[in-house]
Amino acid sequence: MYQINDNFELTYDQLAYSFTKVYWNLIVQHNLVKQNRGKNARVVTIIKDIQSTYQIPAEFSFDKIDNQIQIKAVSEIKSTMKQNVFGALYGDTRGKFYAFDHKSEYFKLNPAVHSFMLNYQRLIVNLTNYHMAAMIEQLNEVPSINYLLGKVETIARRSSLRPFEKVLLDHFEQKCFYCGKTLSNGNRQTHVDHFIPWSFVQSDHVWNLVLSCNTCNSSKSDKLPKRDFLEDIIERNNELIVKEDENVLNLMTNYKNKKIILLYDYSIKNGFDQIWSP
């Protein structure tokens, strides 16, 4: 919802990447191979074939596999999504929720639907996770379904934020974003923190990530930083936007200051109203 462009559009590649990552982690990491009744879902066949072809261990999350293999998986699953996913709710909602175009490979949300999703984001995510877990539990068996809701709730989480840590360390001083203390001291281990909690965002974007010391990271936990820090992260992100670094520019695609302000305001509306300061 925060990666759309100014026309409320997402690319098929963006959606297919998220779709592939979620199902890879369900199928490969957690062995939840039954995703529908009857024969295996096409996504299961694609992912299992790629895992077998490249002999990828079951403990490897999607983020850990080679980039070229990721691209191959996303490409194959995108083709299947064109057949079975993008149009799935289109007729049921009479085309009022979203539009899609196979030729340009863009998916466009109705602005009113996007606004509704922002307002009720936490509720929608919780309901989706619950019903997804309930369906998977019916189709799969112990031990794969043990701690199932926890597995479903974390399937989108990135296995490591180290790549983002490197980006931030390459371009900014090695100090805690919150308390300003240096992170070079061995007693202050460097952490990468989601400025607005991951449990609300449910995704990893460099524009929502900051370097933090162990003390601040532990103390902040799942809380929202006081609003003063919002101005600081906007200033930091404006510095990132003008970096002459292709990797950074790719990570900042479709970023606008208004997005992180929206994210902050909507997180409060969705119940993340416990404000933290160091």
Automatic annotation (TrEMBL):
HNH nuclease domain sequence ranges: 166-218
InterPro entries, A to Z: HNH_nuc
Species for this entry: Aquibacillus rhizosphaerae
Keyword set, alphabetical order: Endonuclease, Hydrolase, Nuclease
Cleavable signal peptide: none
Organism superkingdom: Bacteria
CDD domains with a match to the protein in the record: HNHc
Nuclease recorded as keyword: yes
UniProt name for this protein: HNH endonuclease domain-containing protein
Lineage: Bacteria, Bacillati, Bacillota, Bacilli, Bacillales
Gene Ontology MF terms in the entry: endonuclease activity
